[in-house]
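Schema walkthrough. Field components (list of strings):
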Amino acid sequence: MGDTNHISEQEIAQCAEAINNGTYRELDQAIQDHIANCDSCANEVSMIATILEEEEALISGIENKRHEPETKSLNYKATIALLASAASVILFFGVRFFSNNQITNNNSISENINVDTTQKARETKIQSPVIPLKTQPEEAKKKEPIKLLHTKKKHLLAYTPNEQLEKLVDRFDGATMRGENIEVISPILIESKVGQITLEWTNPDNQLLILEFFNNKGEKLFEKETNKILFQPKQLDKSGLYYWKLINEDFDLIFCGRIKLK
Amino acid sequence: MLKILNKKLQNKPLLSENDLLTLSEKVVLRYVYAKTIPLKEKEDVQMSIIEKFLKKQDIIKKRFKGDSKISTYCIAVLNRMCCEIIRSELKHWKNQLTETEDNTSTSALKTSEQLIIKDEKNQLHKIFILLGNECHKTIVFLAFYYRFHAKENEVKQYDKDYIKNKLIELLTIKESSNKGEIFNILSKIVNLVEGKQIKSDAVRMWLNKNIDLVINRLNGPFNRANYDKESLEILFEYYYFEEEMREGKVI
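Field assembly_structure (string):
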């Protein structure tokens, strides 16, 4: 352990990750025993675990950036290219300066020099874009991951399964329905475009049924009472992952399924 | 491997400037959210911890052992630095925090009620995990103490031989049971499961100690909340019956 009285920051980080991975009980028993008896360390671990849980996408982004391959060789090459092109440019302007000041009729030579220097200028033009562009792609690169991260994060968030509701859905996957006469015809997972979902079931006794709809955060969006055999949830008007429950008039849960809207 | 890791870290900052800014903000915001740091002080505290972090970067790098992600480790370091600042400044902030509380609109509080309950349940869940070996025993015993029915999956985690030991039957609530009878049953269970020979008083003291510990941890750090035994029971009920509440079976 770190200090004489408390665990180190490294150990706190390790414990926080273990809590979120479900591997806390596999950690060193001495650390577990200390935390069980130390409010201060327990609070720290708890705080870090909460931050990790809430900022999962951010932490992944930071870690992914760290593991990107280094561009040392490119920088080295770019430095050489910079020096070479700088030398070429100086040479080009130097030669032009001298050739303009010279009182000579040796046009062929100057032409050759011009051709040479023009050729070199062309080469530098090819090479030199590497140098200014070095900063541009990097700057673009700096912004891009953040943009991508936001877009990816938004996309991921809309489809991230809800742990509790997933457990409920799994219970109904392939299992017999609770309601005696009511049978759900729709599959456990419905994938469709927005506005094109129909939920169906049998209801021979014309029972009053309750449909509840949840988003993937587990928040109830709306409910509907019906004694019919189908319903089209037009209120689900955004793409994402949703859950629905079918409840009978005795408030027994008959079915829980998933809806993925694109 | 540690030498290679340390060599790689030597020439590279632990975090980029952007990442340091972002992570330090996340850490400080948690304490602002918990009303430990006044909103006005947020930026000052953030700058202070960034400054500290940069000054001690070499030492921080050396102490990294690779047992966790670097970003997690940095969050832990930033958090500890934040706590040090809070400890030294809390007295000065107390007035500001009281003013902020008075100005909070009740309608804003109501709309965030669900979020608060969810956060608190998560907090309670982590507190139980951090009890280590006593995690499931505490949950099972608390549930019985509060006269909630026993949940098989929790009892199983406490005692793998729960069927043989007939724990579910022992943990059946009798409405007429008083606290004395509750602790008698719990002491029977401890002796059966753990092979001890303790009396009901010992179980009562153990459970009260753990209740106090849970309350302290819910209220910490820095008195972020004001739980007592009554409010713990309410929160525990939300936590224990989370699944049933989602299914619409309100207890």
